[in-house]
Amino acid sequence: MSITLKAVQVFEQQSPHGITLHIPDDGVVAVIGPLRSGVYTLVKMIATLTPLRGGSISINGWKVGEQDEDIRKNIGVVAPHIFLSKDRTIAENIDDYQVAQQITRLPDILDSPLFDQVRQKMEEKLQLSKGMGQLLRLYCALPHDPSTLVLLNPTRGVSTLNLSHFWQLIRTIKAKGKSILIISSKMQDATHCDQIALIKGGHIIAKDSPKTFIQQFIGQLYGVKVHHPLLLNAIRNFPNRADKKNLRLTLQGNQLDLASLKQHLLDNGFPNINIQPYIPTLEDGYIERYSYSKIRKPIYQR
């Protein structure tokens, strides 16, 4: 019940190293990357829907490209390319999947409160919000009790109430010893995972636990209440900023830099500005590592 990726290439223009990653038994790993970073192609490769362009993928010992039928019987995939018929009701869509997978008995995990809305709308035609569409795809991915789950942007559009149910469901599935790979552009999804891998230009640029991502943040982060656009410009022009691209304030060095910043703002006509130390978040760690990575994104090719 594990996934192993070795030097997987997601772009036709080859990356020097590709994507190398291991998702162990009862492990939840998040691969985080922006649009066109190769995450969508990666999901299709793992799901055996797109041929490998290089490298290898094995799922529970089965190799993608060689034992695809075994993989499909033991994997659950949630992604936009999973087909749902808009001309049929929710119940009919679910029946189609259960017939295709030869399901005779539904697992207890489908009794989760997460799927209450799905059950309430069984006889309705498929005119769902993005969040409901994701829940329905997840519902269809679980009846055959897959040993491995691959979820692409699983929380997109999901309500705040259902988010808590979703992560509780993930914890329940993990406790059964299953491997879960979450591929997302939302750093918030990574907070619930055991490991985070950042993808850029078809390459893993960093991999750590959420706690380590925060602990290894370099520099001191400060919060400044911006009440005037000219104040924002003055902060951006401060010479000791570690990061001039993003709307956050990271200073290099110690308290002398903070004193210099206050003097800089005073010289620009902004006295008595309240500047407070700010505890870095997981998203701050992501921005820092992604911004300073020297890996360049290749030209996007379908």
UniProtKB/TrEMBL annotation:
It comes from the Bacteria. The keyword Zinc does not apply. This is ABC-type multidrug transport system, ATPase component. Belongs to the ABC transporter superfamily. It holds the Pfam family ABC_tran. The lineage of its organism: Bacteria, Pseudomonadati, Bacteroidota, Chitinophagia, Chitinophagales. Keywords: ATP-binding, Nodulation, Nucleotide-binding, Transport. It comes from Chitinophaga costaii. InterPro entries: ABC_transporter-like_ATP-bd (IPR003439), ABC_transporter_ATP-binding (IPR050763), P-loop_NTPase (IPR027417). GO terms for molecular function: ATP binding; ATP hydrolysis activity. Coiled coil: none annotated. Signal peptide: none annotated. Residues 1-226 form the ABC transporter domain.
